Structure to design on (257 residues):
């Protein structure tokens, strides 16, 4: 059975479409279907911006713990990146491999992370927008960004380049899909590192989201330095512990890069 996982496992990163057909002849039909899907997405992207188009997305607005990540990507010339899609539609293992394909084939890319202090200062929405702004501006220092395509329905305040918000852009625009994968994988890797110091919260599995197991650990152990203090469940437990005289850890300030 030919699948995305099978293809990614057996192809070298950055193989062309023609090389993929030659290296995995048994996947020819899968490749043709995937190539047609990607061509339609690239066609839509080019209808918005023929060149200098930077896709931008973020990851980590919803979790109770950890940083927020954002990325911007320019993909010119319709590069062959099998499986390129909204990061939420791809398995964790496949995202890790496609992450390398994107970095190898993108004309430009940049990833930003904002820590707990920035999230608390800007609020989570502001932090996500700021991360996307920094990502686009970083790319614009290398390439001529004619239009920034932003996933969602909100524009980025103060961005120096023209921009357009695209609802569900991570499933419709290849450059935004690529940015969603870079942001998601980068943030997931950070959560794996945080998990090494705070394993009882299950960050390696839940990535900071409020699963039942995470909430149970939060209630039992209280927040760690990487929990977002302004988020409801964390704020509630902090108030309970403060009233009970329990110590409260300082916000996380670990330099991750």
């Amino acid at each position: 059975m030919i699948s995305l996982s099978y293809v990614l496992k057996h192809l070298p990163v950055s193989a062309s479409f023609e090389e993929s057909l030659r290296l995995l002849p048994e996947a020819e039909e899968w490749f043709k279907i995937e190539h047609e899907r990607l061509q339609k997405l690239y066609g839509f992207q080019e209808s918005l911006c023929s060149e200098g188009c930077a896709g931008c997305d973020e990851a980590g607005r919803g979790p109770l713990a950890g940083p927020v990540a954002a990325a911007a990507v320019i993909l010119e010339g319709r590069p062959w990146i099998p499986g390129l899609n909204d990061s939420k539609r791809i398995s964790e293992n496949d995202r890790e491999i496609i992450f390398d394909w994107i970095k190898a084939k993108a004309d430009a890319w940049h990833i930003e992370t904002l820590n707990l202090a920035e999230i608390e200062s800007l609020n989570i929405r502001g932090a996500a927008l700021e991360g996307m702004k920094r990502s686009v501006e970083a790319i614009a220092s290398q390439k001529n960004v004619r239009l920034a395509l932003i996933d969602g329905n909100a524009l980025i305040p103060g961005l120096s380049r023209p921009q357009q918000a695209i609802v569900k852009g991570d499933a419709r625009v290849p450059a935004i899909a690529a940015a969603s994968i870079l942001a998601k994988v980068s943030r997931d890797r950070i959560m794996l590192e945080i998990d090494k110091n705070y394993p009882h919260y299950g960050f390696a599995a839940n990535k900071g989201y409020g699963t039942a197991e995470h909430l149970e650990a939060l209630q039992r152990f209280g927040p760690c330095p990487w929990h977002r203090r302004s988020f409801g469940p964390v704020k509630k437990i902090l108030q309970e512990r403060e009233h009970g005289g329990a110590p409260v850890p300082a916000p996380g300030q670990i330099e991750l890069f």
